[in-house]
Specification:
binds CO-5-methoxybenzimidazolylcobamide; 210 residues; alpha/beta; Cobalamin-bd; globular; cobalt; five-stranded parallel sheet; Cobalamin-bd_sf; metal-binding; Corrinoid protein
């Protein structure tokens, strides 16, 4: 039987092969991706972040943990897709300029895909120009921005202003998220919504497009 505490430890200690092996075991046993991700994988990332903050872990530890997390997520991603759902909207998503954190953003992207949205994932370090070009090219319904740093979250406001300057604001909803972001900040910069996690992002997106 899969020991999901081993998955938590494998991610925390940056052990990719072990993380992937336990994840596969859990999948074979029919444990839900949401439980695996939220109860074990995200918690391990929170713990490595706390250790980093306390000076008990360093950037290489973060990188190894991220690599293990990504390896496991790759196995879980296909299970989050529901092939029978019709496309209900187009989302352009990216981590804002200056920010290289992409695990949470990719989780949000996978959840959108799984719930029937078409997703254009622009990756990390995304400028306002890239967001706007992609929104225009794909006739996006939503621009979704992620930021994990208190310094880079400020760039979200630039994107909102650029979207307004481009005359696109009436055509596209703007959603923001990421650990340092909150509702008050979202309102202050003129975004349509803030959500704290991937599940909520999908629910709120559906409401915005209804
Ligand atoms: Co970085 N890092 N990091 N890091 N890192 C944090 C964010 C930090 C909080 C760690 C700490 O000090 N405790 C801290 C930020 C402090 C701050 O600004 N307040 C920090 C720092 C300081 C840094 C560097 C500056 C370190 C350095 O070089 N000295 C540097 C910056 C690089 C850069 O971006 N320019 C850096 C680098 C890195 C790595 C590259 C090593 C690596 C990232 C690898 C990668 O992503 N490919 C990394 C990691 C792994 C982390 C932590 C440990 C984990 C992040 C993560 O993946 N969490 C993180 C500590 C932490 O978060 N506790 C930390 C798991 C993920 C599932 O959660 O991304 O929050 P999260 O996503 C959630 C929600 O936020 C939400 O949904 C997801 C879950 O459902 N969400 C959205 C996210 N985006 C959304 C968008 C939406 C909606 C919801 O749109 C609507």
């Amino acid at each position: 039987m899969a020991n999901l505490q081993d998955l938590y430890n494998a991610i925390l200690n940056g052990k990719l092969e072990q993380a992937v092996a336990v994840t596969q075991e859990a999948i074979n046993e029919g444990i839900s991706p949401t439980e695996i991700i939220n109860q074990y994988m995200v918690k391990a990332m929170e713990e490595i972040g706390a250790r980093f903050e306390a000076g008990k872990a360093f950037v290489p530890n973060l990188l190894l943990a991220a690599r293990a997390m990504k390896g496991s997520l790759e196995l879980l991603k296909p299970l989050m897709r529901d092939k029978n759902t019709a496309t209900i909207g187009k989302v352009v998503i990216g981590t804002v300029k200056g920010d290289l954190h992409d695990i949470g953003k990719n989780l949000v992207a996978s959840m959108f895909e799984g719930c029937g949205f078409e997703v254009i994932n622009l990756g990390v370090d995304v400028s306002s120009t890239k967001f706007i070009e992609a929104a225009k090219e794909h006739h996006a319904d939503i621009i979704c921005m992620s930021a994990l740093l208190t310094t880079t979250m400020m760039y979200m406001e630039k994107v909102v202003q650029a979207v307004e300057a481009e005359g696109l604001r009436d055509q596209v909803k703007i959603m923001v998220g990421g650990a340092p972001v909150n509702n008050a900040f979202a309102q202050k910069i003129g975004a349509d919504a803030y959500t704290s996690n991937a599940n909520q992002a999908v629910q709120v997106a559906k409401q915005l497009l209804a």
